[in-house]
Design a protein that fits this description.
Layout (H helix, E strand, L loop, with lengths): L4 E3 L2 E3 L5 E6 L2 H6 L1 E7 L6 E6 L6 E3 L7 E6 L4 E6 L8 E8 L12 E2 L3 E5 L2
Length: 123
């Protein structure tokens, strides 16, 4: 069974930082690209960041580039999303998902999804 489990969400003030973690099986972690998505109320789910299976390729959406960093923690079999300088517009449920290929366009390529973790940025 391939399961992804997100953690690290919470309620923070604007300008604060959070680190989200996506735990994956060893097989998924080593052979799949892992993406972080988010969905805010009333909006479509959007891709935030992707890291390739090798950890060498990474993508960030325009909205988060320069503020968020995606990385692979090989010791823990997790893909982390370090979120700095958080803004109210970052408020969303954040999901991690796994794709057999590195893909920043076709969301259907992501085969396995976690259940999400809530991030709320508010004063």
């Amino acid at each position: 069974q391939e399961q992804l489990v997100e953690s690290g969400g919470g309620l923070v003030q604007p300008g604060a930082s959070l680190r989200l973690s996506c735990a994956a099986s060893g097989r998924t972690f080593s052979t799949y690209a892992i993406g972080w998505f988010r969905q805010a109320p009333g909006k479509m789910r959007e891709l935030v960041a992707v890291v390739g299976s090798s950890g060498m390729s990474a993508y960030y959406s325009d909205a988060v580039r320069g503020r968020f960093t995606i990385s692979k923690d090989h010791a823990k079999n997790t893909v982390d999303l370090q979120m700095n300088s958080l803004k109210p517009e970052d408020t969303a449920v954040y999901y991690c998902a796994a794709s057999p290929t590195y893909d920043t366009v076709t969301y259907s390529r992501y085969k396995y999804w976690g259940q999400g973790t809530q991030v709320t940025v508010s004063s």
